Amino acid sequence: MIRTVDLTRRFGERLAVDRLSIEIGEGQVVGLLGPNGAGKTTTLRMIAGIIAPSSGRAEVGGLDPASEPARVHESIGLLTESPGLYDRLSAERNLAYFARFYAAVDVRRAVDRALDAVGLADRRRDRVATFSKGMKQRLALARALVHEPRILLLDEPTAGLDPEAAKGLRTMIGGFRREGRSVLLSTHNLAEAEELSDRIGILRTRLLAIDAPRALRAAQETHVVRVRAVAWDRETLDRLEGEGQVLEASGEEENVVRFRLEDPTRDRPRLVARLVELGIEILDVGEETRSLEDVYLALVREEEE
C-alpha cells in the first residue's frame, strides 16, 4: 500500500533523505527509528504529499503523492508530532471541521465513531484547551481516523505522554494491524517500535537496515559471555587477550567481565578451562544477547564513522 523508490529530499545543500526504498503491505506496521535530523519526519511528509521529493518517487495506494496530493489525502490518516488542534473549539467541533474536507463522509457519524475509537466520547463537548497532552494526542489520532483511512502515517505518536496514555495509544495502534490497516510509524522509542512493528527501518538520512526486530538482532549478533569471579586482575585479562583466547575483554564491573567470542561453541569451554588454569575462581558464566538498542547504536555509530 506504500512504496518508495529512491526517495530523496534536499533542502538547499543539505541532504535530508537519501534514496529511500521501502514497501509496506496491507495490515503491516513498519517503524522508522533514527536520531533527530535523520529524515523520519521528512519521509512521512513526502509520502503524505505535503512536500515533494527532490528525486525518486512514492506510491500510496497506487497514487503518486507528489502529483495527486488531494487524492492521497483522501486515503491516508496523518498524525503529526504537533497536533495543531483548535483549543477554543470542543472536541466534536474540531473533528467536524476536519471531517467536512472529505466529500463522502457522513460528518456526524464519522465524529461519533472517531471519538468512541479513542475513548473521548464523554468529553465531546469540552473545549480542547481543557484537555491534557495525552487527551489532545488521542483527539489528534481521532482526526486522523475520522474518514476511516486504510493507511496511517504516525509521527512520534506517544512523544511526551505519560506511561498510561502511551500504553493506551500503543494498544490502538496494535488494533490497526488487526483491522488490516497499513501503518508507517516514526518514533525514538525503541521498545515501542519493537512491540508494534512487523519490520523496523533504521534511518540516518539513508536506510541503514530494515527487517523484523529479531532478524535485525541476528544480523548484528555478537557472542558475549559474562563471567563473574571472586576477583580479577588486569594481568590475567591482558594475557588472555594476548593469547587470542578472546577477541575483546570489556572491563571489570563488580567482579564481572564480559568476553566477546568468535565462536561460542568452540571458544566458551576453552575460555573457562583457561581461566581455571590461571587460578580464577569462577562463580558463574552466562551468555548475553544483543538488544535492539545495541543494534541501533552500532548501526548509527558505524554510519557516523
How many H/I helical runs?
11
Low-confidence stretches: none
Q: Helix coverage percent of residues?
A: 25-40%
The count of strands amounts to 13
Q: How are the strands of the largest sheet arranged?
A: 5-6-7-3-8-9
* Cα end-to-end separation: 35 Å
CATH second-level architecture of the largest domain: 3-Layer(aba) Sandwich
What is the overall shape? elongated
Describe the biggest sheet?
6 strands, mixed
Beta-strand content estimate: 25-35%
- Mean pLDDT score: 90
Tally of distinct domains: 2
Secondary-structure-derived class:
alpha/beta
Structure description:
With 305 residues, the protein is α/β, with parallel strands linked by helices. The chain folds into two domains: 2-218, P-loop containing nucleotide triphosphate hydrolases (Rossmann fold), CATH 3.40.50; 222-288, 2-Layer Sandwich (Alpha-Beta Plaits), CATH 3.30.70. It has helices spanning 40-48, 69-75, 91-99, 107-117, 133-145, 163-178, 190-196, 213-219, 234-242, 264-277, 292-304, and strands at 2-11, 14-24, 29-33, 55-60, 76-79, 151-155, 182-187, 199-204, 206-211, 223-229, 248-253, 256-261, 282-288. A six-stranded mixed beta sheet has the order 5-6-7-3-8-9, sandwiched between helices. The chain has a four-stranded antiparallel beta sheet with strand order 11-12-10-13, covered by helices on one side. Strands 2-1-4 form a three-stranded antiparallel beta sheet, with helices on one face. Strand 11 (248-253) and strand 12 (256-261) form a beta hairpin. Helix 3 (91-99) packs across helix 4 (107-117) and helix 4 crosses helix 5. The protein is elongated. The model has no long low-confidence stretch (mean pLDDT 90).
